[in-house]
Specification:
Largest sheet: 6 strands, mixed
Bound molecules: adenosine-5'-triphosphate, magnesium ion
Strand order of the largest sheet: 6-7-8-3-9-10
Number of helices: 8
Number of strands: 20
CATH class of the largest domain: Alpha Beta
Helix content: 10-25%
Order of helices and strands: EEEHEEEHHHEHEHEEHHEEEEEEEEEE
Distance between the termini: 32 Å
CATH topology of the largest domain: Rossmann fold
Oligomer: single chain
Length: about 350
């Protein structure tokens, strides 16, 4: 059953289109992540679900209720913002308990629930403090606890981890995922960070310029990007995208003929050939194995990242990134042969940018 339903939802300001007639079903208990670059309409979409922004067109359903015209307080959603939005003059306990207080929950019951939620996010020992005496991660947990204590039908989270350092972000990310799995509360989570999207989501919505580009599980989006935009956006380092041609089923990159690849029947003439850095193999022996094609180039740069070597290889006028074994030692200018596995090559139409 779809718990949150967007039906042809649109947001315009004059002739600025923030979100362009999009439809989307979010399942009960699902963790849905909106992923896309700055300005693609993530926050606007979320604010329309929250009731903080009025759609120019379309309807929003939560459960079996059309909430398009409902006030935010009547929608049973809890939002966690990037800047936390805590009350500075209140203690942690009062911040967390505030939504219960305005609902008229009695003092003792409030204390009991605050205690229970504080335990979930490991804040019991900090309940008497003020927000200014907390670290960024602790403040984030207070904001999270305040959302949890409401037990809403839907959590809305807009880049909630972006003010935290990398290490804290990774641990809070795991924490959010665990809490959500435990509580099974339908969640919409906004981020421009594709790692965050991959690790958190049941399904990802990739957006660009107010338009949904792809909807799928992290594994689906990663394995079969729907178009060039998604291919370039999801993955780090991103997928290599090479200009190529296909004639009679044979792929050429520049003057090199890539025997062994099996382009789809729809790939004809100019195409974009995509291959991820980790799917390329440095063929030290200089030959391809079954189901591989060989591409020759020169080392442009070699970087040791610790667990791997990132090679940049120049092939004609293109540069490819290759994720190689950390023991790989190649010098700038060295000739190198790259093996492309046929089953991990992606073909795109350079005009429509769609996957072929
Ligand atoms: N009140 C407004 N008036 C006009 N345009 C607006 C208004 N609010 C947002 N926009 C535009 O709508 C588009 C989508 O904005 P939105 O805030 O949803 O982006 P976002 O995906 O959340 O980006 P970010 O990652 O930077 O937060 C942007 O181009 C933005 O400039
Ligand atoms: Mg935003």
């Amino acid at each position: 059953m779809a718990l949150v339903k967007l039906v042809n939802i649109e947001k315009r300001w004059g002739n600025v289109v923030g979100v362009a007639r999009q439809s989307l079903d979010i399942q009960d208990g699902e963790f849905m992540v909106f992923l896309g670059p700055s300005g693609c309409g993530k926050t606007t979409t979320m604010r329309m679900v929250a009731g903080l922004e009025e759609p120019s067109d379309g309807q929003i359903w939560i459960g079996d209720k059309d909430v398009t015209d409902a006030l935010p307080k009547d929608r049973d959603v809890a939002m966690v913002f990037q800047n936390y939005g805590l009350y500075p003059h209140m203690s942690v306990a009062d911040n967390i308990g505030y939504p219960l207080k305005i609902r008229g929950v009695g003092r003792e019951e409030r204390q009991r629930q605050v205690q229970e939620v504080a335990q979930k996010v490991e804040l019991e020992h900090l309940l008497a403090r003020r927000p200014r005496d907390l670290s960024g991660g602790q403040r984030q947990r207070v904001a999270l606890a305040r959302a949890i204590v409401r037990r809403p039908q839907v959590f809305l989270m807009d880049e909630p981890l972006s003010n935290l350092d990398a290490k804290l972000r990774a641990s809070m990310r795991a924490e959010i995922r665990r809490l959500q799995a435990e509580m099974r509360i339908t969640t919409i989570y906004v981020t421009h960070d594709q790692i965050e999207a991959m690790t958190l989501a049941d399904r990802i919505v990739v957006m660009k310029s107010g338009v949904i580009q792809q909807l799928g599980t992290p594994a689906e989006v990663y394995a079969r990007p729907a178009n060039l935009f998604v291919a370039g956006f999801v993955g780090s380092p991103p997928m290599n995208l090479l200009s190529a041609t296909v004639q009679g089923g044979v792929v050429h990159v520049g003057v090199q003929r890539l025997d062994g690849l099996t382009p789809p029947a729809t790939a004809q003439g100019d195409v974009v050939l995509g291959v991820r850095p980790e799917d390329l193999r440095v063929a030290a022996e200089g030959s391809a194995q079954d189901g591989e094609a060989l591409l020759k180039g020169q080392v442009y740069m070699s970087e040791l990242t610790g667990d791997a070597v990132l090679l940049t290889v120049e092939v004609g006028k293109d540069r490819l990134c290759v994720r190689g074994d950390r023991h790989l030692r190649l010098a700038i200018g060295d000739p190198v042969a790259l093996a492309l596995p046929a089953q991990h090559c992606h073909f795109f139409d350079p005009k429509t940018e769609a996957r072929l």
